[in-house]
Write a structure and sequence with these properties.
The chain folds into 2 domains: 7-263 and 391-441, no CATH class; 266-384 and 457-551, Gamma-glutamyltranspeptidase, large (L) subunit, C-terminal domain (Serum Albumin, Chain A, Domain 1), CATH 1.10.246.130. 30% of the residues lie in helices and 17% in strands. A 7-stranded antiparallel sheet has the order 1-22-21-17-16-9-8. Strands 2-10-11-3-4-7 form a 6-stranded antiparallel sheet, with helices on one face. α2 runs antiparallel to α4 and α12 (287-298) packs antiparallel against α14 (311-331). The longest helix has 21 residues, at 311-331. The protein is globular.
């Protein structure tokens, strides 16, 4: 398993203010809601979802309203210029639907898209801050498909909160101000973006300023009236031309690419964990398989007896990450293009064989991918791209239906290209940049029409009676499956509340380097991990962001937002 240590550098995350007045509220204390509930990274987006539920809307309606509102107030992390994955669980039947709204590469894209004439990887600025990195956005198509199947309110109704936010304005909070300032050169590449988010002095608007985005209000109004046709039909040529003009080489986006985009229903990835059933997203996301493998490998250990303060637990957890991520790098990709042996990777016998590699007393040396049933023979792997600008939200409704939805534009503010009042993703840099490894094709290499591998892991957990007990997901690039698995263990094994589980220490293996979040780590953990054979253990604080809803025994819902976000909504 190979990761760039750049992954542990600060990710650009932000929370925008949430109120129709210029006063931005802080994150509320953990709440328990009797029926429908919403958890998102921004209270204003949460309010948009709650408004849909109050009007009789479904969990799907509310989730779409949240996604649209986040487009306005959290532009660095998500929005209609990007894509996402949605899990929908029917509260009455237990049926599970997953929708893939991942962005696609232009049809004429080639495996050498990110290489120069000498076969070397292009400089980061060239490959990221240009049309080379932009995939056809999928969030609107995903929303339309989900609404057609599970929506109750009129499509246009879902847009009302986001339109009001863009038109009337929202308060600039400290986190968004800092994200804009830290990402100058990316967030301010376009003159219209500068007009919205920056002042005449070229600096980000100050904390407490009212931010208005009339172009985005117009775009959202068109989408509300016309549906997805406003993006994938009437404006397809305009969007494609905007991206193509900023594309220096390889296949440019075309009108036909935009018009051809389809959000796809995929098979969920479900696996048992103790008496529970954990379900997530399948390819092109690696998240569902990675979470299932980590949990399955740890099932033979009595984690509850160890507890979250015990270094042995964290050692076992790190080892399970290393084993699962080795498989991830070799096998994960877009299953429409490569053979991804999902069933083999989550096969109980295979997971048991991988678990047998893990010892509570020693550390594995070099970790190689295994050979699950159905594994393809010729496959190369490749290094991970470090960026992420992602958000997650969870919704349940009065009928017991649940939505777990992760949305992204990849890096903070995506490609920096600004169109119609929103940032366009740089999702294509999630492809492996080099198309071959040791003479073998890489599963996640660029190909025309292909969707890049993702780490997103929207997840729903069922109890032994088939009832939904946890709706969860996270943001943070390849840290996402680790955050999700850790929090599931916190709830199911350690008996934690959802907020406490989200606030558990973050410990992750990046190749041979183990990263420990110092603010939350138990005393002496770094030394204990070194004593167990982890040669390089470093303190680091990647900005994590997870959201969850936990069903309590009386049927009410505990609403959880990552406690790391506390204090990030200051506006003065």
């Amino acid at each position: 398993m190979r990761f760039s240590l750049a992954l542990i550098a600060p990710f650009a995350l932000a929370l925008a203010a949430c109120a129709e007045s210029p006063v931005a509220p802080q994150l509320a204390a953990p709440a328990v809601v009797a029926t429908g509930a919403v958890s998102s990274a921004d209270p204003r987006a949460t309010a948009a979802g709650e408004a849909m539920l109050a009007q009789g809307g479904s969990a799907t309606d509310a989730a779409i309203a949240v996604m649209l509102a986040l487009t306005v107030v959290e532009p660095q992390s998500s929005g209609i210029g990007g894509g996402g994955f949605m899990l929908y669980a029917d509260g009455a039947t237990g049926a599970l639907l997953t929708i893939d709204g991942r962005e696609t590469a232009p049809a004429s894209a080639t495996p050498t898209r990110f290489l120069d004439a000498d076969g070397k990887v292009l400089a980061r600025d060239v490959r990221v801050f240009s049309g080379l990195s932009v995939g056809i956005p999928g969030n609107i198509a995903l929303a339309a498909k989900a609404h057609a199947e599970h929506g109750k309110l009129p499509w246009a109704k879902l847009f009302e909160p986001a339109i009001a936010l863009a038109r009337d304005g929202f308060v600039m909070n400290r986190r968004l101000n800092e994200s804009l300032s830290q990402n100058k050169g990316r967030a301010d590449r376009d003159s219209e973006a500068r007009r919205v988010f920056f002042g005449p002095d070229g600096e980000a608007l100050p904390v407490g300023a009212l931010v208005r985005n009339p172009d985005l209000a117009g775009t959202l109004t068109d989408l509300a009236k016309e549906g997805p046709e406003a993006m994938y039909g009437r404006n397809a040529a305009s969007l494609a031309r905007w991206v193509a003009e900023a594309t220096p080489q390889d296949g440019s986006m075309t009108e036909a690419d935009v018009r051809a985009y389809v959000a796809k229903q995929r098979e969920p990835v479900c696996a048992p964990y103790r008496v529970y059933r954990v379900c997530g997203m399948g390819p092109p996301s690696s998240g569902g398989v990675a979470v299932a493998q980590m949990l399955g490998q740890l099932e033979r250990f009595d984690l509850s007896a160890l507890g979250p303060q015990n270094p042995t637990f964290w050692h076992l957890f790190v080892e399970s990450q290393r084993v699962a991520y080795a498989d991830r790098e070799l096998y994960s990709g877009d299953a429409d293009f490569v053979d991804v042996p999902v069933a083999g990777l989550v096969n109980a016998g295979y997971i048991a064989s991988r678990s047998a590699l893990i010892s509570p007393d020693t550390t594995l040396g070099k970790v190689e991918a295994g050979v699950p049933p159905g594994a393809p023979l010729a496959r190369g792997d490749g290094p991970e791209e470090p960026e992420n600008g992602t958000t997650h939200f969870a919704v349940t409704d009065a009928a017991g239906n649940a939505v777990s939805y992760t949305s992204t534009v990849e890096g903070a503010f995506g490609s920096g290209l600004f169109y119609g009042g929103f940032y366009l993703n740089n999702e294509l840099t999630d492809f492996t940049l080099t198309p071959e490894e040791n003479g073998k094709p890489v599963a996640n290499r660029v190909e025309g029409g292909k969707r890049p591998r993702s780490s997103m892991a929207p997840t729903i957990v069922y109890d032994a009676d088939g009832r939904i007990v946890l709706v969860i997901g996270a943001a943070g690039g390849p840290t996402i499956p680790v955050q999700v698995a850790r929090s599931i263990i916190g709830v199911l094994d350690f008996g934690m509340s959802a907020p406490d589980a989200l606030g558990m220490p973050f410990v992750m293996s990046f190749g041979d380097v183990v990263v420990v979040e110092p603010e939350t780590a138990p005393p002496g953990l770094v030394d204990a991990l070194k004593a167990l054979g982890h040669a390089t253990v470093r303190d680091a604080s990647p900005p994590l962001k997870a959201n969850a809803l936990r069903r309590l025994t009386d049927g009410s819902w505990e609403v959880a937002v990552d406690p790391r976000l506390k204090g990030k909504l200051d506006y003065e």
